[in-house]
Design brief:
alpha+beta, 6 helices, 6-stranded antiparallel β-sheet, single chain
Length: 184
Amino acid sequence: MYKILILLFLLTKINSFAQNEYQLKVRVSGNMPEFEYIIDVHRNSENSKIYFSEYTGKETYTKTDKIRITELLHKKDRTANENMEIMKLRDNSKNYSKECFIFSKKDPIIELSDLIISSKKTILNEIETNKNRVVLDAIQVKVTIKNKNEAEYSYNIHAPDDEYYKLFRQLVNESSKEFRVVYY
């Protein structure tokens, strides 16, 4: 009987330990080119580190990239792949300010991160329910998650608010307060 109880206790601890080790990367961007920041949460059982990066509004292109972008921009009939190439070259050239912070498990931003990790099924259902929702001129949130038990997965959330994607709206609000970001 004691062996069964010990085994159950160990399995519970292993499961909760595994759920607390993850990396959650959140990219928040708006329609203005200078509005973009990244919150990269590295969580384990001992502590939580957040790497905060904010787009400075400047780009640094290599000589080759600059030539290629100029060539593509002056092309009359660009293909979708060429437009994607322009966007990728611009994204790769962005300069970010970077800082690292250590947070406790009880901090609201970490609690929200934990909730996002544990709510995968609910989030996927909400995305499916709202797949035809159209909102113009709003923020974009791309969330990428890596944890020990699963392969990397991500969510693309458009226009989180108090009715739709409420959890992501709370994360954006909390991170904006924490890192003093003004997004609109």
